[in-house]
Amino acid sequence: MGNLTPVLGLRSFIRNIRASGLVLAMPALLLLSALFVLPVLILLSRSFLDPQPGLQNYAELLSSASYRTILFNTFIVSTTVTLVTLAIGFPVAWLLAVISRFWAMAVFAVILLSMWTNLLTRTFAWMILLQSTGVINRALIALGVIDTPLALTNNLIGVTIGMTYIMFPFIVLPLYATMKAMDPAVLRAASLCGASRLQCFLHVFLPNCASGIVAGCLMVFVMSLGYFVTPVLLGGPSYMMLAELIVQLIQSMLNWGLGAAAAFILFAATLALYALQIRLFDLLTDARKG
């Protein structure tokens, strides 16, 4: 009987795996491991082993003033784009939630059409619009608003405008879903209880939109951290971001160790933000239940 115990234990283990559905998920897990987990581990190992074992790559990234400036630019640009996108996307999402279905679908068609347009095409279009002889500057001069063309490219303004346009749908969609799911009777009840419009917005409407705001802002911020094309074309060398630095370190300088360290810092920041999102969602869920 003692010899059969390991066999029975193995059979019980296999039955538990089958019951949990792990067998069905195994192909997906193997594919994910081969295409994502293994490359990440290889990249992480190169950040510690290339050109020699140690933490010198991370030390160089954090001690160099130039690299710290690039890290700072990355988070400043991402934060600015997130705030501007939220400021524009919130009223648009609210408008989509309250207007008729026909007009909402029409506006959604325009928003989705912008998402389906090639990214490089959209960025080049903004380069033409924002240049000193572009449509925007010529229109402002013709209206008498300005006398000389504004510098709208190769700076933070150009990057913010271009990336806000690209990120706009990613904050409108979660906000719209949250607002559309809100029960209008809650706002009417607050109004009947004597709350002003501002109080209804601050204490009823805005807290109910918190999950959509968190999801949309995190999505925009994380995507902005790793953006490459738009900052390169509209920002110029003065506003280099971490993604462009990684490309230059690996493709131009062939410095795999330093490039891998920069990539892993970006990856770690993304994971930390997702962990923060999960924590915030848990807090919001507990607050609603309470």
Keywords:
290 residues; mainly alpha; 82% helix
How would you explain this protein's 3D organization?
The structure is a single chain. This protein is an all-alpha fold and 290 residues long. It is built from 14 helices and no strands. Helix 3 (56-63) packs across helix 14, helix 4 (65-98) runs parallel beside helix 8 and helix 13 runs antiparallel to helix 14.
Write the SSE topology.
Layout: H1 4-20, H2 22-49, H3 56-63, H4 65-98, H5 101-116, H6 119-130, H7 135-142, H8 156-180, H9 184-192, H10 197-208, H11 210-225, H12 229-235, H13 242-252, H14 256-289
> Which term fits the overall shape?
globular
Straight-line N-to-C gap: 54 Å
Structural class: mainly alpha
Average pLDDT works out at 82
Radius of gyration: 25 Å
Major sheet summary line: none
String of helices and strands: HHHHHHHHHHHHHH
Count of helical stretches: 14
Unreliable stretches (pLDDT < 50, length at least 5) are: none
- Number of beta strands: 0
Range of strand content = under 5%
Short description:
With 290 residues, the chain is an all-alpha fold. The protein contains 14 helices and no strands.
